[in-house]
User: Which sequence fits this backbone?
């Protein structure tokens, strides 16, 4: 759809056209809901996979699992797909879905305000105003690059760009380059650019745990099998899913179970680096799993190169020509690559959303902590749903699994509102509180909280507001249908609706019997 042609009103407005927004469009369409629109600030579908085009960009979850369950792709060339293949996959799924006529690109959501009289969201976009009965934020958690807060950063006179906004017009050949950060993006970039640049300084604040990447090309036979015998591909997918799910107890209950991974990571260091001093510098001093475990066979050999220096002294400032570390050394460079991650614990879109009583969601989160019932809905923000909301991230498995769970739940909610004449739905405060308290209680015993590290999983108060601390199948179960009884509902005649739980609602989180069941399943999984 042309952005100059925005309708005045839609039933459902989805913001963002990455994996999440596209899943929403497909699920809504399948459910017979045609009155929806997806607005996207970029020029295409793909979200983070459209934006992250840095050299070496690839997924660290195997593509058989990091893809929609309803759109298997027999064309994956290898187990861990590179970014161009993932982006091409998302584009192909979007085209095949027949929903692209309801996508508007290069349109930013500037502001959304809940109108209590009309029970509509009044949304101001860069292409004009629109009202919506339901607002779905599928803006993603890794979409807004975070620049480092370093003195003098803006004074640097050379070239600077963030890993997620790679400047392909700037040739790095022979240049003196600095990269700040040693997270998932940096460890993919460094091995690619080290052989090309003149000299590379890698600024490490905290060493990551890095295990080998068991990546390989699929054989011709496998590709033929995926194409002609879909069942085989689904067996691969299941095997990967359950293999990954086995990591959950090590993260959430029994850190000792991560010992084999730690051994693999230490062997990876010994294999990749010969210099004992460098080996010591790259060996983390916190529990494995506390930060995202990274996978690479090329990171340590790249750091061992003669033209690469790992700088661990800590940055004090940036000057017009280089970077100064705590010991007073200044290293001049032509280019600074910022691989310092994203705004994850403050969800930038929250600054643009104002709910009941005129309270901005960002202020609400600042006061109460970033939290949402089932990672999806927030009391005080009627008819607002998140795909990839608070505490829905994963350290071990596929976000697409979580996205599909939420897209199904939201689609069910949208249908429920329509069939029951409900104009406003928000989680009951006591239900949201019970959910959040339970989640945070579980969080305390996880390696993310007790593993002795700082990470982007934690907010300024040390609360983990990003990750899901349980099995992913439990998340799917909890979101298997819209649990209307957990919500304050207003009918179109302004009458508060007393909803009757449906048979499927018995999986709701506030049913203690179910929580116990899920615990049992997680313990035995
Ligand atoms: O960002 P990060 P990323 N001075 O936040 C350092 C996903 N992803 O873009 O650890 C110096 O992980 C910071 O240091 P520290 C994935 O979910 C997936 O790499 O905070 N350093 C850290 O080393 C991932 O987790 C894939 O001490 C500073 C780095 O910058 C998420 O994206 C690929 C600093 C930031 O690491 C983000 O990854 C790539 C400062 N002032 C990314 N500030 C897949 O394969 C920060 N740092 C799917």
Assistant:
């Amino acid at each position: 759809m042309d952005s100059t042609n925005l309708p005045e009103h839609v039933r459902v407005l989805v913001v963002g056209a990455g994996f999440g927004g596209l899943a929403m469009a497909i699920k809504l369409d399948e459910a017979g809901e045609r009155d929806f629109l997806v607005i996207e600030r970029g020029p295409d579908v793909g979200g983070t996979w459209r934006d992250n085009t840095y050299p070496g960009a690839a997924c660290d979850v195997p593509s058989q699992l990091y893809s929609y369950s309803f759109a298997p792709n027999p064309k994956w060339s290898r187990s861990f797909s590179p970014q161009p293949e993932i982006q091409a996959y998302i584009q192909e799924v979007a085209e095949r879905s027949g929903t692209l006529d309801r996508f508007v690109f290069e349109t930013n959501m500037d502001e959304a305000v809940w109108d209590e009289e009309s029970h509509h969201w009044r949304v101001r976009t860069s292409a004009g105003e629109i009202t919506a009965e339901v607002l779905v934020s599928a803006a993603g958690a890794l979409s807004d690059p975070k620049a480092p807060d370093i003195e003098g950063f803006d004074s640097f006179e050379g070239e600077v760009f963030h890993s997620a906004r790679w400047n392909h017009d700037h040739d790095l050949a022979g240049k003196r380059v600095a990269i700040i950060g040693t997270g998932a993006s940096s460890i993919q970039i460094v091995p690619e650019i080290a052989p090309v640049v003149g000299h590379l300084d890698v600024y490490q604040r905290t060493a990551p745990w890095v295990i080998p990447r068991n990546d390989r090309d699929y054989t011709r036979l496998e590709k033929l099998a995926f194409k002609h015998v879909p069942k085989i591909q689904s067996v691969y997918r299941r095997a990967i899913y359950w293999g990954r799910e086995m990591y959950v107890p090590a993260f959430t209950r029994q850190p000792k179970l991560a010992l084999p991974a730690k051994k693999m990571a230490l062997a990876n260091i010994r294999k990749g680096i010969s210099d004992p001093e460098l080996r010591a510098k790259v060996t983390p001093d916190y529990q494995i799993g506390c930060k995202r475990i990274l996978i690479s066979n090329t990171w340590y050999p790249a750091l061992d190169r003669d033209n690469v220096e790992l700088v661990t002294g800590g940055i004090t400032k940036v000057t017009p020509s280089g970077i100064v570390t705590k010991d007073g050394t200044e290293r001049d460079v032509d280019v600074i690559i910022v691989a310092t991650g994203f705004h994850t614990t403050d969800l930038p879109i929250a600054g643009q959303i104002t709910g009941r009583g005129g309270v901005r969601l960002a202020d609400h989160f600042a006061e109460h902590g970033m939290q949402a019932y089932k990672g999806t809905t927030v009391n005080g923000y009627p008819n607002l749903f998140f795909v990839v909301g608070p505490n829905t991230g994963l350290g071990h498995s596929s976000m697409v699994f979580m996205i599909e769970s939420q897209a199904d739940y939201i689609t069910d909610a949208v249908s429920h509102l329509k069939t029951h004449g409900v104009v406003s739905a928000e989680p009951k405060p006591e239900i949201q509180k019970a959910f959040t308290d339970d989640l945070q209680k579980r969080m305390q015993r996880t390696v993310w909280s007790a593993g002795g590290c700082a990470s982007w999983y934690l907010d300024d108060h040390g609360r983990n507001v990003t990750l899901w601390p349980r099995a992913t199948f439990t998340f799917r179960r909890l979101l298997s249908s819209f649990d209307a009884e957990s919500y304050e509902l207003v009918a179109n005649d302004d009458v508060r609706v007393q909803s009757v739980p449906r048979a499927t609602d018995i999986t709701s989180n506030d049913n203690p019997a179910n929580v116990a069941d899920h615990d049992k399943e997680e313990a035995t999984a």
Residues 500-521 have pLDDT under 50 and may be disordered. The chain has two domains: 3-144+343-523, 153-208+250-338. The pocket of 3-acetylpyridine adenine dinucleotide is lined by residues 58-60, 142, 148, 150, 163, 180-186, 203, 205-206, 292, 315, 339-342, 456 (CB under 6 Å). The CA atoms of residues 507 and 514 lie 6 Å apart.
